[in-house]
């Protein structure tokens, strides 16, 4: 959620300056007093403070509409307020201002009070409400705030601020903005300060000048009512963990986590990490342990411990430095201890031998191959020159059989690790011939271009839906069939293939594909919108529009037979968690205006919030009926009344514009976003030729810059980011410049087809077979009944060389495209004569 605060109105009342701020989504970044909403916290540590803390006792008054949103549940309401005030505290704590909520008042009784009305209410009820320094009225989704400048500690210590339950913490900066007004800061307040970051020097969101924070700090000493901490908090207060004041249900409060200096206090819960009743016991135990460690260390240093035995296994020990002694091999359990005293603790070892005694050699064990040193000598150590003579080396200790086996096993393992495998590495077998890569017959890959290969044979014409006769592949159909299944079955002509071959390409994920960028800008200009986004399909474009206009849990209004609702798997529910409120569709392809009004949800916490109206132009299920500009303007009025957005599935918007003699910009003007499918747009090579072609793939989504920026992020999440897409964008751009004439021919031929079908069907048989022939574009819908059903009709047409699509249980759809000429239309009419014979 990104909102901005703009200064709209400044008036004077009661000798106080009133600043009225409104929050709305910014179109440009040049508003006066802009406040960026979000979760980021500004750094005010550069402000010079006087070291004294101020305490602002705040009364939060809840508008009844906000109270109803929480279903009059005080617990839920206080949780939302706790999130808001926790975020507000993160701002004010940095300047030593401690905000204390003394009460949350919910018995207001009046809806939507103005600032003046709220001020009068406070004066009239001052004896009945909790004493406070400032009172703020919170309104449900009120987009802005209003407050008296320097009103704190007086009769005008009131303000109004919006509250959004969906994300209370994101509205904290607006609350702080109004709080700053009450403390004396106005939009033209300025000052001097020193900052590490001069691009954002102690700024407060919505105030145009730098050093606003320092100016606010210098105003704090003059307000008498906030100079001392409250002696006793009322039982109605709202505890704020992190404000530095120990309140109800808190054991400690050391401030926000970054400023907390008490290691025993958890700043996230304001509870002790160790219960107080256990703390002193733990402290005593730690002290005793420390004393024991110190005593043991002193005992080792002063040599007051008993002498270390110099002989093991019953041998006599050394009693004095001058006594003669012999060394005996230590047992394995004592080897580690002796080695420990020789090296790591040589200065502290309580040995009674003199410094002239040499260090005993490491113990040895006997094996079948001689003596093996159990502990090799340390590197860099030498034997002292003045070693004592006459001290024989320790005798070797003979190991038993089990120890010998262990040593031999370890030696074998070490040798196996240190020596490589003597067997030579065999080269891997060559791959089978079927897996070897095939060389291109005519490789021609240049920088920035893509050469299509024509060596692959075309796939056969076959059914791709088992048990259905409505879909077949379209590579070879042009020669054998009149293909009326869709306007997407066309293939690129030679001229378009040349454009694809020579297209400039780059990485579109980095925004570096010149062909994609040029197409997007051209479409934005064509539709009269700020920006555009090239995507893979119309289905993705519609899903991106819904996800960009709505949030999870919200609702769209859409026709029950629209493409978005019926033909796209309900993807808005699968991927975005958005529900649909459906309406009927009249014979003109319109959503009835009264049903749109009736389907808009009231603002209630039990219902999903309505956010978007989805239209279709032309309407596929209504037989390609175009929506008029007048109808779109009526829907726009309804949307503005309820703060809704409008999205148009304009896959065939070019057909709607040509049929009505208007521009696509006129059809796009009343709506917020629009999608057009390039593969459904037929293009002409010249004004005198009906030969044309739709682009291979791709759709365009147009709207405002902010909307397209959101859609761009959603596209990435859906896996729609593509790289060198310029080859596709170039084809779409080439066709976009050559569309109008072919579209007119398609409409003429579609009308001829519809009327020709009706001419061969007598009046008494119209209930079994009837084509819609009024206000159509390039789509012809044939209604069936009686003995005929869509599957039977398409089967008969297929046997006579015509491909059509069974639309549903009662209708057949045919779409005229550039591959169908006048001869193909007449052939289709003749095929319907065979259909009539089956009635």
Structural overview:
The chain starts with a strand and ends with a helix. The strands form six sheets. A seven-stranded mixed sheet has the order 1-2-6-7-5-3-4, sandwiched between helices. Strands 14-20-19-18-17-15-16 form a seven-stranded mixed sheet, sandwiched between helices. 31% of the residues lie in helices and 15% in strands. β17, α16 (629-641) and β18 (645-649) form a beta-alpha-beta unit.
Brief characterization of the structure:
The chain has 23 helices and 25 strands. The chain is an alpha/beta fold and 839 residues long.
**Discrete helix count:** 23
Reported by name, the CATH topology of the largest domain is Aspartate Aminotransferase, domain 2
From the N-terminal CA to the C-terminal CA, the straight-line distance is 60 Å
The average pLDDT is 78
> How many strand segments?
25
Order of strands across the biggest sheet? 1-2-6-7-5-3-4
Cofactor: pyridoxal 5'-phosphate
GO molecular function: L-allo-threonine aldolase activity; metal ion binding; metalloendopeptidase activity
Family: Belongs to the threonine aldolase family.
GO biological process, one term: proteolysis
């Amino acid at each position: 959620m990104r909102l901005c605060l703009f200064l709209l109105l400044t008036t004077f009342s009661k000798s106080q300056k009133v600043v009225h701020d409104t929050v709305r989504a910014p179109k440009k970044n040049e508003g006066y007093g802009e406040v960026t909403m979000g979760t980021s916290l500004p750094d005010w540590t550069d402000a010079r403070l006087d070291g004294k803390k101020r305490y602002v006792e705040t009364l939060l008054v809840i508008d009844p509409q906000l109270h109803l949103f929480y279903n009059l549940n005080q617990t839920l309401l206080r949780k939302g307020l706790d999130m808001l005030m926790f975020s507000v505290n993160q701002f004010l704590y940095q300047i030593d201002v401690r905000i204390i909520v003394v009460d949350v008042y919910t018995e207001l009784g009046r809806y939507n009070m103005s600032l003046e009305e709220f001020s009068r209410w406070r004066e009239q009820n001052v004896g009945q409400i909790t004493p406070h320094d400032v009172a703020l009225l919170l309104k449900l989704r009120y987009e802005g705030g209003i407050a008296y400048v320097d009103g704190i500690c007086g009769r005008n210590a009131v303000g109004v601020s919006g509250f959004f339950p969906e994300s209370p913490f994101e509205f904290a900066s607006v609350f702080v903005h109004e709080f700053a007004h009450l403390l004396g800061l106005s939009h033209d307040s300025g000052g001097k300060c020193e900052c590490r970051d001069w691009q954002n020097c102690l700024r407060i969101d919505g105030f145009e000048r730098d050093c606003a924070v320092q100016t606010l700090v210098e105003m704090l000493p003059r307000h008498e009512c906030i100079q001392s901490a409250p002696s006793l908090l009322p039982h109605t207060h709202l505890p704020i963990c992190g404000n530095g004041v120990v309140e109800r249900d808190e054991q400690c409060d050391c401030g926000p986590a970054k400023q907390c200096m008490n290691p025993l206090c958890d700043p996230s819960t304001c509870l002790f990490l160790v219960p107080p009743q256990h703390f002193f016991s733990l402290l005593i135990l730690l002290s005793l342990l420390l004393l024991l460690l110190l005593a043991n260390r002193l005992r080792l240093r002063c040599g007051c411990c008993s002498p270390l035995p110099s002989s093991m296994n019953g041998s006599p020990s050394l009693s004095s430095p001058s006594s003669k002694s012999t060394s005996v091999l230590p047992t394995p359990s004592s080897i580690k201890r002796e080695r420990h005293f020789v090296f790591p603790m040589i200065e502290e070892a309580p040995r009674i031998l003199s410094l002239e005694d040499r260090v005993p050699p490491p113990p040895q064990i006997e094996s079948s191959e001689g003596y093996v040193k159990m502990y090799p000598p340390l590197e860099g150590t030498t034997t002292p020159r003045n070693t004592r003579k006459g001290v024989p080396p320790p005798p070797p200790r003979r190991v038993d059989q089990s120890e010998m086996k262990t040593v031999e096993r370890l030696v074998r393992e070490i040798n196996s690790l240190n020596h490589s495998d003597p067997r030579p590495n065999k080269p891997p077998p060559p791959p089978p011939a079927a897996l070897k890569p095939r060389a291109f017959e005519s490789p021609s890959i240049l920088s920035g271009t893509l050469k299509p290969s024509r060596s692959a044979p075309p796939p056969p014409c076959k059914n791709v839906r088992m048990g259905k006769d409505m879909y077949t592949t379209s590579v070879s159909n042009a020669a054998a069939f009149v293909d009326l299944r869709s306007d997407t079955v066309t293939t690129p002509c030679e001229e378009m293939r040349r454009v694809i071959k020579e297209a400039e390409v780059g990485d579109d994920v980095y925004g570096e594909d010149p062909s994609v960028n040029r197409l997007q800008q051209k479409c934005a200009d064509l539709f009269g919108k700020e920006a555009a986004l090239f995507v893979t399909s119309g289905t993705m474009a519609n899903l991106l529009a819904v996800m960009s206009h709505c949030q999870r849990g919200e609702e769209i209004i859409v026709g029950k037979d629209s493409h978005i609702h019926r033909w796209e798997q309900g993807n808005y529910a699968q991927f975005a968690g958005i529900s649909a409120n459906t309406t009927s569709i009249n014979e003109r392809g319109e959503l009835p205006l009264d049903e749109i009004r009736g389907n808009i949800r009231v603002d209630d916490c039990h219902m999903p919030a309505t956010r978007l109206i989805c239209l279709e132009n032309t309407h596929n299920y209504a037989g390609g009926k175009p929506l008029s500009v007048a109808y779109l303007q009526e829907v726009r009025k309804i949307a503005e009344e309820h703060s809704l957005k409008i999205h148009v599935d304009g896959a065939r918007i070019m057909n709607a514009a040509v049929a009505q003699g208007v521009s696509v910009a006129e059809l796009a003007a009343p709506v917020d976003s629009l999608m057009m499918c390039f593969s459904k747009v037929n293009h002409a090579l010249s004004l005198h030729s009906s030969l044309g072609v739709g682009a291979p793939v791709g759709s365009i989504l147009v709207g405002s810059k902010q909307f397209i920026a959101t859609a761009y992020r959603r596209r990435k999440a859906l896996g729609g980011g593509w790289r060198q897409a310029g080859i596709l964008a170039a084809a779409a751009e080439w066709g976009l410049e050559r569309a109008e004439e072919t579209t007119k021919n398609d409409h003429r031929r579609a009308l001829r087809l519809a009327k020709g079908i009706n001419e061969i069907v007598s009046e008494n048989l119209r209930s079994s077979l009837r084509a819609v022939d009024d206000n159509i574009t390039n789509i012809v819908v044939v209604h069936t009944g009686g003995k005929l059903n869509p599957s039977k009709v398409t089967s008969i047409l297929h046997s006579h060389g015509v491909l059509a699509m069974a639309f549903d249980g009662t209708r057949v759809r045919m779409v005229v495209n550039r591959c169908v000429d006048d001869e193909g239309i007449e052939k289709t009419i003749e095929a319907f004569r065979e259909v009539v014979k089956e009635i």
